[in-house]
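ok so I'm stuck.
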Amino acid sequence: MKPDYLSSLPPVPEPDFRKNAENFLDFASGFDLTDPKIDLKLRHTFHVVDACFYLSQALKLTDEECYIACLIGLLHDIGRFEQLTRFHSFDDSIIPHAKLSVEFLFPGGHIKDYLAPKYEAWEPVIEAAIEYHGVFQIPDGLTENVLLFARLIRDADKLDNFRVKATDSMETMLDVTEADLARESLSNYAYGTFIKKEPLINALRETRPDMWLSYVAYLFDLNFPASFVWIRESGYMEKILRRYAPIDPEDQKRWQKISDLTRSYIQENCELYENFPARP
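replied:
not stuck anymore, here's the structure
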């Protein structure tokens, strides 16, 4: 059964948002929705909207800011559809999907299909947030508003990526079975970087278990304690940790250390939530 995306939208405090979602679904209908990679990204988009709404409430944003955050969530990966159609790959080393999203929406003028004239002052914030959601590190020197929304979409995107990694087919994500993944090892770079509580640089990953670990390491680039509460309550991280079950004894020891560190890091950050300020 196909998901009913419109009936499950969060209560975004702007009537325009339902029309925005309808427009997005019309856009997506022009692609091959039977392609599991396309379907994955369509589902991902609406789950990111949910995460944007959740974080907006946790951060006590205004109604207008909540709407803009959810619109960014709706549009952040719109370039993925073109990327997958042209290359049938999520590999950003071929062409960054965030760049495709920005080019489609802004020089291409399609942002006007979504953003009413009364909100046009938000265009630079939306453009920057979408551009920076896919970079390894947010650049310095951004305005307070751009920084807030860039951080919010980066967290929301990662939160749903944890759901994807926990529930979707390994073959769709990594073009490998879980049994074959278990026969491969982590590199010293990946293990050492994770133990230092740092995100992994994609270009330095050497193996497919490195790729899997890099998804867990998204934890180290989250911005809001509320994000860790989402992770803990969803239970997805435990499923992600169980999906790599290495055969090699040394890899088993390493993965156990990684799993223990992951659990403790999530709990430590959840404990910060009670004293978390409404606005960073």
